[in-house]
Write a structure and sequence with these properties.
The structure is a single chain. By secondary structure, the chain is of the alpha+beta class. The protein has two domains: 13-241, 3-Layer(bab) Sandwich (Hsp33 domain); 247-300, CBS domain Like (Alpha-Beta Complex). The protein has eleven helices and 13 strands.
């Protein structure tokens, strides 16, 4: 059993544990509310929603692994599937997500959402960590199946060289997300063969993780799955879907187009609408504002 217990509600959250005084570490998250919000924002199909639920959980774990909450982590899966490229950005406990074709649909496969077909496996999973120093760390691994659980496990094992057990899931139907979440267990230096074997023997418990999260509270699940291994609960952190876009950032994006392209927009005499790919917020810039930006660029040019 855990030697510490924190009362939690069942909002989206990340629980961090140690196993047997640090022989392994555990990241266990619920992302149900974020997945529903993302599905509603992007008008996502059921298969897209299932993929986003899994992807949000994997991205949330990557964020929880960072000690500096200001580190920005961009995770992208591009496997040539029906949904196109899926991207999430994590900063601390806040996450945003987008996908190229959120309304793409696929028939179910053996009664389950075909996440593998939606993501595809002809490509790679890319993780970019931006520490604000100007030299981001980039990790890349080949996609294994597009089902995402195996793909994140491959990334941790190959790119970061940390053997990891990963289970990600999303239970949803007809636009309603019933549960979503995931668990990542990583062996640490000094992990004994006995502990590693006991952890591997528990893999079948995690295979239906979305159903388990629907039926039972997170901490109860962690205790039942891993409590006999001597769990220590380190933290419980709320998770949120949040976008940091702003009108100022949209204006900067327009300026980045350059004077020539802004001149073409002016010649067309139309307002310009900028849409955030993550939260779908719309920002309209009048022709007078475009003219001001064009003037700013031409005055700056020697």
């Amino acid at each position: 059993m855990t030697n510490q217990r924190i009362t939690i509600d069942e909002n989206d959250a990340m629980l961090r544990y140690l196993v047997r005084d640090g022989q392994a570490r555990v990241f266990f998250c619920r992302t149900t509310q974020m997945t529903q919000q993302a599905a509603d924002t992007h008008l996502a199909s059921d298969v897209a929603t299932a993929a986003m639920g899994r992807f949000l959980s994997g991205a949330a774990v990557l964020g929880a692994m960072e000690k500096d909450a200001n580190t920005s982590i961009t995770v992208a899966a591009d496997g040539g599937g029906a949904g196109g490229r899926m991207t999430a950005v994590v900063r601390g406990s806040e996450i945003k997500i987008t996908v190229e074709r959120p309304q793409a649909q696929l028939p179910t496969l053996n009664g389950r959402q075909d996440v593998g077909g939606y993501i595809g496996k002809d490509g790679r999973l890319t993780v970019v960590r931006d520490y604000g120093t100007g030299e981001p760390y980039i990790g890349i691994s080949a996609l294994v199946s597009g089902e995402l659980g195996e793909d994140f496990a491959q990334y941790f094992t190959v790119s970061e060289q940390v053997p990891s057990l990963v289970a990600l899931g999303c239970l949803n139907q007809d636009g309603v997300v019933l549960s979503a979440g995931g668990i990542v267990i990583q062996a640490m230096p000094g992990c004994t063969d006995e502990t590693l074997t006991e952890l591997e023997n528990r893999v079948p418990f995690f295979e239906g993780i979305s159903r388990e999260l629907y039926d039972r509270p997170m901490q109860e699940l962690a205790d039942s799955w891993l409590g006999s291994l001597g769990l220590t609960l380190l933290s419980n952190t709320p998770l949120h879907l949040a976008c940091d876009c702003s009108r100022e950032k949209m204006r900067a994006a327009l300026l980045a187009l350059g004077a020539e392209e802004l001149k073409e927009i002016l010649n067309e005499g139309r307002e310009t609408q900028m849409i955030c790919h993550f939260c779908r917020s719309r920002h309209v810039f009048k022709t007078s504002e475009i003219a001001d930006m064009h003037r700013q660029l031409t005055e700056e040019t020697p």
